[in-house]
Design brief:
By secondary structure, chain A is an alpha+beta fold. Chain A contains eight helices and seven strands; from the N terminus they run ββαβββββααααααα. Chain B has one domain. The chains are: A alpha+beta, B mainly alpha. Chains A and B meet through α6, α7 and α8 of A and α1, α2, α4 and α8 of B. The structure holds FE2/S2 (inorganic) cluster.
């Protein structure tokens, strides 16, 4: 099929960018979205043009690298799917597709579609460690965990830190990300000792990085390739409130 | 006290303050609307209600103080969080395709500004009386009739109630989430309560200017 792409091109962090149009006459419906960009890039290189820079790593939907906003949707139109798992059979001959980087002040553009998402890593770092006994491997199931709690913790732990929640949020808020992390550690017995210290530190870091607040629009959940629940944000709020009311440090 | 400052400095702290003050203000508008309906019982009943409230003295001022403080905190948290959100995305998208945002969610900010303008006007109109054409202290019923008898004023009141409906719909349905309560058993209940309040409260308020506008009370 024949597609028209409008792609954000920006040479470097301080350069001005613009959408540039490309025609691709020979897209196979079996290609993934990133393979289509590979094909376009090969052609650009052959012509002596600079290929389109985009992040990717696993290409199997688990690393969270492949950040881009496709027709106004982070990771494109398909629910619960990363860009690398999106396939061109979603599109029809003659379609025009607009591809932009994730937009947030906390995610500065590095080049073209690549943005710097280390702000999310710094939130994780602020969360600190989880105290566990090292040494011999513990017996399986030595610590009882209620099944519903284990399920919810695992659901939250699916977050791959891709930043689509930030990209989709009208406030560029990182609450779904922080909520997922706080929920998956806070629901498990191993995460209890640092639970309230962790939430205060992570929220403080999140605000410091320049993310916006939550207005309960729910766009983050819609865009999330792992469909993290908004309930994680409620839990973040509840833990933050409790931690603020009961903190004993100075 | 440092922890309070730290709490209010954070995005989540300010959201929680917005939700808690919002909850209080929802309680107030529901009570205020119910009291207003006494106007349909006639001049004597409404004036007696007004005199009863005035007679509360210190209690009335305590209530007013709490409401004013709540309103100021509500507006300040909303204002600063809006500025912060705008700063969080300076370069916008060429194309956007929101899927989840409801009309009421999108109306929170401009609707909130409209409501604030309305509240200030309303206080000077029917409480202080300084923007009222013929304000007579102690004659609440008469003041409502002459005040809302000006049709553009009545229309402004009605427009503000439209904004209130949208504000209550999103505000009530999301304030529990902000206060940390999200449970599959409770979420549908919150949504229904929000929808009910968003209909009943603004309609109850709007009944008064509508009745004056159409000459049903005089
Ligand atoms: S490249 Fe790893 S999730 Fe898409």
């Amino acid at each position: 099929m024949r597609l028209t792409l409008r792609v954000w091109r920006q040479a470097g962090p301080r350069d001005a960018g613009a959408l540039k149009q490309y025609e691709i006459p020979d897209v196979s419906p079996d290609m993934s979205f990133l393979e289509m960009l590979d094909v376009l890039n090969e052609r650009l290189e052959r012509q002596g043009d600079r290929p389109i820079a985009f992040d990717h790593d696993c290409r199997e939907g688990i690393c969270g690298s492949c950040s881009m906003t496709i027709d106004g949707r982070p990771h494109g139109p398909q629910q619960g799917t990363t860009t690398c798992q999106l396939h061109m059979r979603r599109y029809r001959d003659g379609d025009t597709i607009t591809i932009e980087p994730f937009r947030a002040t906390a995610f500065p553009v590095v080049r073209d579609l690549v943005v710097d998402r280390t702000a999310l890593d710094r939130i994780i770092q602020a969360g600190g460690f989880v105290g566990v006994a090292t040494g011999n491997a513990p017996d399986a199931n030595a610590i009882p965990i209620a099944k519903p709690d284990a399920d919810r913790a695992m659901d939250a732990a699916q977050c791959i830190g891709c930043g689509a929640c930030v990209a989709a949020c009208p406030n560029a808020s990182a609450m779904l990300f922080a909520g997922a992390k706080v929920t998956h550690l806070g629901l498990l017995p191993q995460g209890q000792p640092e639970r309230y210290r962790r939430v205060l530190a992570m929220v403080e870091r999140m605000d410091m990085e320049g993310f916006g607040g939550c207005t309960n629009f729910g766009e983050c959940h819609e865009a999330c390739p792992k469909e993290i629940s908004l309930a994680t944000i409620a839990r973040l709020n509840a833990d933050f409130l409790k931690a603020s009311l009961t903190r004993r440090d100075s | 006290m440092g922890w309070i400052a730290g709490f209010y400095r954070s995005t989540i702290g300010r959201k929680i303050v917005m939700a808690a003050t919002g909850l209080l203000l929802v309680g107030f508008v529901a009570a205020h609307m119910t009291g207003n309906l006494l106007i349909f019982r006639g001049r004597d009943a409404f004036d007696a209600y007004s005199h009863f409230l005035q007679g509360l003295g210190g209690l009335l001022w305590l209530g007013r103080g709490i409401l004013l403080a709540s309103l100021l905190l509500h507006v300040h948290s909303a204002w600063t969080l809006t500025r912060q959100a705008q700063a969080a995305r300076i370069d916008g998208y060429a194309e956007s395709d929101p899927r989840a945002a409801t009309r009421s969610a999108r109306a929170m900010r401009w609707g909130g500004v409209l409501l604030l303008v309305f509240i200030v006007y309303h206080i000077f109109h029917l409480t202080v009386g300084s923007v009222h054409p013929d304000f007579r202290r102690g004659e609440a019923y008469g003041n409502v009739m002459t005040g809302l008898g000006v049709s553009w004023v009545a229309l402004f009141y009605l427009a503000a109630m439209g904004a209130l409906a949208l504000h209550l719909r999103h505000g009530v349905s999301s304030l529990f989430q902000t206060l940390g309560v999200n449970h599959p058993h409770l979420n549908p209940v919150f949504a229904k309560v929000a929808t009910a309040l968003a209909f009943v409260v603004p309609l109850g308020f709007a009944a008064v200017p509508l009745a004056v506008l159409f000459g049903l009370v005089r």
